[in-house]
Write a structure and sequence with these properties.
Layout: H1 4-34, E1 38-40, E2 43-45, E3 49-51, E4 57-61, E5 65-68, E6 77-80, E7 86-89, E8 92-93, E9 98-99, E10 102-105, E11 109-116, E12 123-130
Parallel strand pairs: 3-5, 4-12
Antiparallel strand pairs: 1-2, 5-10, 6-11, 7-10, 8-9, 11-12
């Protein structure tokens, strides 16, 4: 025969175990949803807008970083006729790392970035920048 006190202890233990598992699953979910951004110096930093080779359109927000992925980043050059909307950074190779060319979205509007890969046709990436 099971005593009532023992039933209460077993039920309480089961309830605590379920609550602990529920807490773990919500923590894991919270961590997964926050992995898309990071906190640096108390400010949330969003991931960059990635532009694949040959991609001709992209969308960014003011303040976003735009990365132009290239097969040969250091030899690929970029230019723009809208420097008031995007600040460009050329690709480079400092000997220890290779950096893709990119841009920072400065203001709302439509920016055009011309991408000139070595040995291939240049193409334009039209970036729609929102507030």
């Amino acid at each position: 025969m099971i005593r009532p006190a023992r039933v209460v202890v077993l039920a309480s233990t089961a309830l605590v175990a379920v609550a602990a598992l529920a807490a773990c699953s919500s923590t894991t979910s919270d961590q997964a949803s926050s992995s898309a951004s990071a906190v640096v110096g108390g400010n949330q930093v969003l991931p960059p807008v990635m532009v694949e080779p040959g991609q001709t359109t992209a969308t960014a927000k003011v303040g976003d970083t735009i990365v132009i992925k290239a097969d040969d980043p250091a030899a690929t050059t970029i230019s723009t006729t809208t420097p008031d909307l995007v600040e460009l950074t050329q690709g480079s190779n400092d000997g220890s790392a290779v950096f893709n060319p990119g841009a920072k979205a400065l203001a709302a509007g439509t920016a055009v970035i011309n991408v000139a890969p070595p040995g291939a046709d240049a193409y334009d990436v039209t970036v729609t920048i929102t507030e």
